[in-house]
Design a protein that fits this description.
Elements lengths: L12 H10 L3 H14 L4 H8 L3 H14 L20 H11 L11 H12 L5 H10 L16 H21 L4 E13 L25 E9 L4 E7 L4 H14 L6 E7 L3 H4 L9 E5 L14 H5 L10 H15 L3 H8 L10
Parallel strand pairs: 1-4, 4-5
Antiparallel strand pairs: 1-2, 2-3
Helix pairs in contact: 1-2, 2-4, 6-7
Length: 353
């Protein structure tokens, strides 16, 4: 049976737990956790299972703590043996500035390239792990950029946000006896061409998604009230003026729009939304988003949710795809809190209850 390591009583078990809970730096936090668990009598195999550290590393941390006390817990990876930071304040500022532009090879920054940059400055070889550590130290993280159309007008977008609140007040003033709500609506194309998304798998496994590429499509029409998270859905074969008119008429009937209820509906400037042939029912007021501004459209946030059950799947025909989408939309009708959290932007005007 494995034996637990002996931990010198530099701190009590309770004090070690407090240090572990309060530690801000990830490396030191984990080291405190390791020493705390060992002090409680856990064996190295159990500590390894909890922390993910190798057993020889755990023994090394324990030995360093026994010999040096709290000094053995500190993370010295950014320092020379003399205790000075690897990069001076000026050099760190220069690194920060360099990270604002592409690396010398024109690609993307990563730990290896940061390490190469540091190596050039210090005129000695630095391991790629140090590059990654400096990225983390400077609070950099990997994120996929949100697309923004090059013709998008930031000034126009900010003006539209303010105009939207004014529009709500105008409709309320024109219909003082009516309940006024602010909704948004958009369309999303899905089809037999597979949608591939990352999934959680066991380490070392390669997930496989069997696909059958065919260019056949359906359109998901979505209405959302961001303030409450209420939604309304249509699944149709096309987008055109005729179908848009039909959807608007059905939406107005479903929600009893008219004298006692008015809805401002934010939509993009697609041709089938802006045409003179569009028949807007009583109680609906279309409000067009600025051009090239999908990031202002709350309904855009719905598509990752509707894509979940069809991602990494291949369907034999549109009928089966439609059935899966139908069930997904029914499920989302019951997830108003989730949807409100995703779609109710901080700047989105709130309407009177």
């Amino acid at each position: 049976m494995p034996k637990s390591l002996t931990i010198e009583p530099h701190l009590s078990v309770k004090e070690l737990e407090v240090r572990y809970r309060q530690a801000k730096e990830p490396i030191e936090r984990t080291r405190y956790q390791i020493v705390w668990l060992l002090a409680r009598g856990f064996v190295t195999q159990e500590v390894a299972a909890v922390t993910g550290y190798r057993r020889d590393t755990i023994r090394k941390i324990a030995r360093r703590y026994n010999q040096q006390g709290l000094e053995g817990i500190k993370d010295r990876r950014y320092q020379h043996p003399g205790g000075q930071p690897m990069l001076s304040d000026v050099e760190q500022a220069q690194l920060w500035q360099a990270l604002q532009s592409p690396p010398p090879d024109g690609g993307l920054w990563n730990g290896r390239k940061v390490a190469e940059w540091i190596s050039d400055r210090l005129e000695r070889r630095i391991g790629r792990q140090r590059g990654w550590e400096y990225l983390r130290e400077m609070t950099f993280g990997k994120r996929v950029p949100r697309p923004e159309h090059k013709e998008a007008d930031i000034v126009e977008q900010e003006a539209w946000k303010k105009k939207l609140a004014v529009r709500v007040n105008q409709v309320q003033a024109a219909h003082p006896e009516a309940k006024v709500e602010l909704w948004s609506m958009d369309e999303h194309r899905v089809g037999l061409k597979p949608i591939l998304r990352r999934v959680w798998v066991a380490q070392g496994e390669q997930p496989i998604a069997k696909v059958n590429w065919r260019f056949q499509w359906l359109w998901l029409y979505a209405f959302v009230h961001p303030e409450s998270g209420e939604t309304y859905w249509w699944i149709l074969p096309y987008v055109n003026i005729k179908l848009f008119n039909r959807v608007l008429a059905d939406f107005a009937r479903e929600f009893g729009l008219g004298k006692n209820k008015q809805i401002i509906l934010a939509v993009d400037q697609a041709g089938w939304h802006t045409s003179d042939l569009v028949e807007v029912p009583e109680g609906i007021h279309l409000e067009f988003l600025p051009s090239h501004s999908p990031e202002l459209q709350p309904a855009e946030r719905l598509w990752p949710l509707t894509n979940e059950p069809i991602a990494n799947n291949s369907f034999p025909d549109l009928e089966q795809l439609e059935q899966v989408l139908f069930e997904r939309c029914r499920a989302l009708l019951k997830q108003a809190e989730l949807i409100s959290g995703l779609t109710c932007f901080h700047w989105w005007p709130r309407t009177a209850a």
